[in-house]
Records
---
Amino acid sequence: MSAQAFPGSVAQLRLAPMQPEDLDAVLSIENTVYPHPWTPGNFKDALQSGYQAWVAREEVGNVLGYFLLMVVVDEGHLLNISVRLDLHGRGFGRALLARVVSMARELGLASILLEVRPSNARAITLYGHAGFMSIGRRKAYYPADENVREDAIVMRLSL
Ligand SMILES: CC(C)(COP(=O)(O)OP(=O)(O)OC[C@H]1O[C@@H](n2cnc3c(N)ncnc32)[C@H](O)[C@@H]1OP(=O)(O)O)[C@@H](O)C(=O)NCCC(=O)NCCS
């Protein structure tokens, strides 16, 4: 796949397939935006599994965010969507999610599923405004502090 293969509705984001050489930049974002980040091995496994893994870059070339979408038959599972910490709150998350949705439509998917921590108010707002509906909870899904686990809210968007 080439860069810009999915023009989508938010043309100003420059997307390219995530490559192994992007992992240093991706992990540096991952480690600053999540208390319990994915490991290098998680990303390598995801790339080897052929998931839709894309990075968005600033004009100067630095990675500003990324997402990973696992496709199973006609359903996409949004495994990770992240924006660099210094750029939070400027609409990049919304733009990136719009690209996920347009990509899923181009792939002919019927729906996108995701999990989100109930404590992640910004992400829940982002997904809600994009039309995702809460469809349930997974108990003790996420690691949290001091051996406590946090539930996940499961959200779904019909395409
Ligand atoms: C979640 C994330 C991707 C959103 O990206 P972002 O660029 O910061 O988000 P945006 O600026 O596009 O704002 C998204 C929405 O959240 C709203 N928002 C901003 N700050 C908020 C807050 N503190 N509480 C609730 N909503 C908030 C915005 O108003 C916006 O709503 P809008 O679509 O009506 O404008 C980003 O914050 C991030 O990388 N967080 C860490 C990783 C993460 O949690 N990923 C999601 C895992 S499920």
---
Amino acid sequence: MVSMFRLTIWGAARTVTGSRHLLEGPAGALLLEGGLYQGRRGETYRRNREFPFDPKGLRAVLLSHAHLDHCGNLPNLVKQGFEGPIYATPATAHLATLMMLDAAHVQEENVAYLNRKRAPGEPRLEPLYTVDDAVRAARMLVPVPYDRPFQPMPGVQARFVEAGHILGSAAVVLDLDTRPGPTRLWFSGDIGRRHLPILRDPVLPQGAHWLLMECTYGHKAHRDPRYAYDELREVARSTFEQEGKLVVPAFAIGRTQTLVYLFHTMMQKGELPQVPIYVDSPLAVDASEVYRAHPECFDEEVLHLLRAGVLEDVLGFGRVHYLRTVEQSKALNDQPGPMVIISTSGMLEVGRILHHLKHTITDPRNTILLVSWTAPHTLGRKLADGAKRVRILGREYPVRARVVTVGDLSAHAGRDLLLEYALASRETLRGIGLVHGEEHAARALMQALAEQGWHRVTYFREGEGWDL
Ligand SMILES: [Zn+2]
């Protein structure tokens, strides 16, 4: 039988970055995701610049969520001739706009800096894409609400369903017009978790024939995130009791809003004393505005707290201090605790967090709270490993503040939920394809699936795929 549709994996193959998958059918080609590949410099630039398909020939892009490894190369796709549309949920469209513009700024700045260091006569470097390209890509975004069917090209009906990973995140359900009957391809995007703050729980696949899914934590069973919330409460309480500052490095989009929501809600419920919360990062402030603008994404708990008047709005805009300017940021140094300062970056490599750290790390009343994964050799990792002295912005400081790590706040499903997700449509399922996971994670999930009697799993290499 001649197959009418072909799915080819061109990214996040045996790795967790650079998601992009090509679906070709009788009426043309669609791209699922347009992610940035993040890795070592030379290889990264080449991989992001060159597409293994013709961007001009794509009829549309379908985007699952706004993380850079899923949307961060869309401006380059546009630069190379793609003319849109890019379908996404309304909240994803909103957040992806912020992400792409921010990424373009960073690239333009980095290239300008490197070019200033070049000798006269040496060829100038070019950014992967510019702010103009990002603006053009943002204009191509077409918001489609959850659970509303749409037709990205003839012969394909698509629908976004809740993924519970970050605000607006979705799985993409594709019903393909095939013979003798329709074929359902279910693309998971990134799978979130149950009981994450603000967000609804992920929807499990229904009636899928082919399931393309992520497996980032296929090797790891998470604890219920509610244990982590109890730990956060205790760390905050003990810091406030000694009038200390609670300093939290966090990524601007997702983790910052989770923390603000948790601390603010605990204060509103009377579980913690009312102390000022400062969010110090312009990007985090913008992202928080996006959260507030999308109540259609909130879970029942938030809606209940809003209805009951416990929360005025989801991220406490009336009480939480959202800082944009450097002057506002600096002014915090002179203010006494207790207070919460949430600032970027999550790994403590760059950003305003370094200034806050410099001003708080030598006082034993303060707490540095680490809630994100940190790469080896970063300042965040050194603190997590218990360093007694650290260098911050070129100067050495003794670590006298308390350093606490609270894990289990990941926004990715652990092994048990991945397994449940994989086999939810077992009755109809023909095959499972694994992407977005390192080898040890994928092997562990395949092993767990085999123990459940399921063997039709492919751990895709780049360029491999399915005839559907
Ligand atoms: Zn993600």
